[in-house]
Amino acid sequence: MSPAVVVLLLFAGLSEAAGRILPLVARRPGMSRTVVAGLLLPGGLVEGAVFALWPLTAWTLAELVLSSPPSDAGLVWTPSLVAPLVLSAVLAFPLLGPLLHLLLFVGVGAGLAGPLATATGLGWWGAAGCVAVAGAGLGAAVEAVRHLVVRISATEAPEAIA
């Protein structure tokens, strides 16, 4: 992966994390900047890593679907493929609505399906299915981890009764 792609993926991850953290900051106006940065940076790295794994996961699913796996090295992000992802992460904060967010990610996934179909020999619909399943699986895994972290962080130590 080129350094430009890594920077774009990190920017998309930070943007996505900011969209997740802004509602939290809006509900708790007394949060310090260090707490917000402490939430934003790891969240951005995790989101960027999930974005980076999307083509790899779709490629792996395509290999499972095909009877004879392709000999290519796999599908990787290129600046032209990742640019719409960055745009969708910047424009479609979850604050703007989940439907718009989903619509933009479907557009990015459709853009990813074409190169996957070409590289694997699958039809476009088969490649789009692999991209959709990979994206949904990664999204569900991240959402499960988010809920687990919130549940763990929300539990407080019981107060001692004196």
Nearest-integer average pLDDT: 78
Q: How many β-strand stretches?
A: 0
Binned strand content: under 5%
Radius of gyration from CA coordinates: 18 Å
Question: Topology, pairings included?
Answer:
Elements: H1 3-27, H2 33-65, H3 79-91, H4 98-120, H5 124-154
Key phrases:
single chain; 5 helices; mainly alpha; 162 residues
Q: How would you describe this protein?
A:
The chain has 162 residues and is mainly alpha-helical. It has helices spanning 3-27, 33-65, 79-91, 98-120, 124-154. The chain contains five helices and no strands. The termini are far apart. The mean pLDDT is 78.
Could you provide a short overview of the structure?
With 162 residues, the protein is mainly α. Helix content is 77%, strand content 0%.
